[in-house]
Amino acid sequence: MKIKNKLVKRVKKIWLERQSLKDYFFYRRALTAKIVETCRLGRENPGEKFVNLPKMNVGEAEIITKVLNAVWSGSQCRRCWKVVEKGYKLK
């Protein structure tokens, strides 16, 4: 009985470690959004650049872009911010 309990505890421990690793890698994979400052007028060469913020998930990035666009990007402003996924190439 003691051996069985030790085995069960060990299996549970290994399973929990693997679950936490899975969650960690899922979280890291979810951090794929970046914010790009771009031209609102749709020119051929918009002069895009990444905003100097760490990678984040899409929901967080959308909230930040809404705030940036509300505060600094009026109807007369040429610049705006948008959310892009991992692997986006600047234009």
Write a concise keyword list for the protein shown above:
single chain, three-stranded antiparallel beta sheet, 48% helix, 91 residues, alpha+beta, 2 domains, 2 helices
What global shape is seen? elongated
Radius of gyration: 22 Å
Q: What is the total domain count?
A: 2
C-alpha end-to-end distance: 66 Å
What do you see in this structure?
With 91 residues, the chain is an alpha+beta fold. The protein has two domains: 1-30; 32-84, no CATH class. Helices cover 48% and strands 15% of the residues. The chain has a three-stranded antiparallel sheet, with helices on one face. The chain is elongated and about 75 Å long. 5% of the residues are buried.
Give the topology, please.
Elements: H1 2-30, E1 34-39, E2 49-50, H2 58-72, E3 79-84
Antiparallel strand pairs: 1-2, 1-3
Summarize the structure.
The chain is α+β, with helices and mostly antiparallel strands and 91 residues long. The protein has helices spanning 2-30, 58-72; strands spanning 34-39, 49-50, 79-84.
